[in-house]
Amino acid sequence: LKFKDERDEQLIHKYELQQKKIKETKRFIERFRYKNTKAKQVQSRIKQLEKLETIELPQNESDIKIRFLEPPKSGKVNIELISLVKSYGDNEIFRGVDFVVNRQEKIAFVGPNGAGKTTLAKIIAGNLDYNNGERILGHNTIISYYAQDVADNLQPDIDIIETVDGIAEEKTIGELRSILGAFLFQGDDVFKKVGVLSGGEKSRVALAKILLTKSNFIVLDEPTNHLDISSKKVLQQALINFNGSLILVSHDVDFLLPIVSRVVEIRKGKIQTFSGGIDYYLQKR
């Protein structure tokens, strides 16, 4: 993945050289088309152009526009945590945490590694039990959760296109292939069995599935780890346009910057809320 941008640059360079050559050839043809002395050379160049396999530019992220399906409307409050306690044996992670996510809020969870960001995200998503307190799910709240380990839940014996087709029957195969292409699955890659994919590839499939759900509350834990720059921008734009609620656990400030409007810092078992975007948080921390 880290070499993809370099490959794209090389491809663009080759494309430009080929386009220059094509223009020169066409100019020669036009200039000498009606000169008998150049007839053989003209015909030779015409045949060269006909046989030429043109280089195609890599698809630009601005040309790929992916939108989440319009989510069903939830109640005013998506979820509320009251006096939440969570520990692993004698290791207490949280005590007495109160937290509310309102409809269409987009929130970043930030803080040092090991502070409990993923733990809190999993509890909110309903993927992890807690020791005490309350977790109250709001009216008509439908949650989708993504983390790097969620790929373990993918069916290994079906191919990639079947994996996403099963949750988005209203999408055409062409639309599904466009979405998968945005996550670096090109051409016949979409017919690979999930079981033969690497961990990073499985994570990208799981992320593509999230984009096809009809959830109105999405929890994403480090979603950009296996994405190249182009794919990251595609996901970023989709999240900006998403009409539901969102929690993003991420260390990628540039990714979070245009998306979130509230920041929650998690540190030493405590949460502190900053009612503004990433810039506001960085100023106030």
UniProtKB/TrEMBL annotation:
Keywords: ATP-binding, Nucleotide-binding. SUPFAM superfamilies: P-loop containing nucleoside triphosphate hydrolases. One of its GO terms (molecular function) is ATP binding. Transmembrane segments: none annotated. It holds the Pfam family ABC_tran. InterPro entries: AAA+_ATPase, ABC_tran_Xtn, ABC_transporter-like_ATP-bd, ABC_transporter-like_CS, ABCF_ATPase, P-loop_NTPase. SMART domains: AAA. Residues 79-285 form the ABC transporter domain. PANTHER family: ABC TRANSPORTER ATP-BINDING SUBUNIT, DRUG RESISTANCE ABC TRANSPORTER,ATP-BINDING PROTEIN. This is ABC transporter domain-containing protein. It comes from marine sediment metagenome.
